[in-house]
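This part of the workshop introduces the protein records we will be handling. An example says more than a description, so a record of this kind follows:
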Amino acid sequence: MRIALMVVFLVFSAQLALAKDDVAPTDRGPAVGSVIPSDLASIDQYGMARNFETLTGENGLVLVFFRSAKWCPFCKRQLMSIAKEADKITSRGYNLAALSYDSLDDIKRYVDEHKPGFTMLSDRHSKVIDAFGIRNEKYGKMHFANGVPHPMIFIISPQKVVMAKLAEKGYKNRPPVSAVVEAIDALSASRE
């Protein structure tokens, strides 16, 4: 009887995990048009306390949530791609910041080695990630990846409103900088 219950529990747990993964990537997190649920209190690569007011640019903030600059090859590739084309975002009046659950030491190590040229943020206890509702629940408390976000990019106005969000299914593919720029340009055109 105990084994049968265990099997039923495991099958039910697997179905729940699959159901969570079936969520459309952009259905996660705060809705477009809503105010962000956090002031983005975190620590930057220099150990300085940061929040939305210290991160936003004249036209807003492009906020990249990524898994880890320490161990995730897909994140490292994304961060390098963003670094190469960051000026396409910043020249439009948006500041750029990337946030993960990485420790400050891991963020510093990545910045020292790769010099991305934009703000990188440590959300060590995943408070911002949880406020945005994008924690990947697949990883339990004892797993080294517990606390990672689903990779997403938010375009946020200076008034803290989510103007657009971009994400791909799974964690291996990430929206290219060109998609972020297209979204920014579309937002600018709609305001004119």
Summary: The first helix runs from residue 2 to 21. Residues 1-20 have pLDDT under 50 and may be disordered.
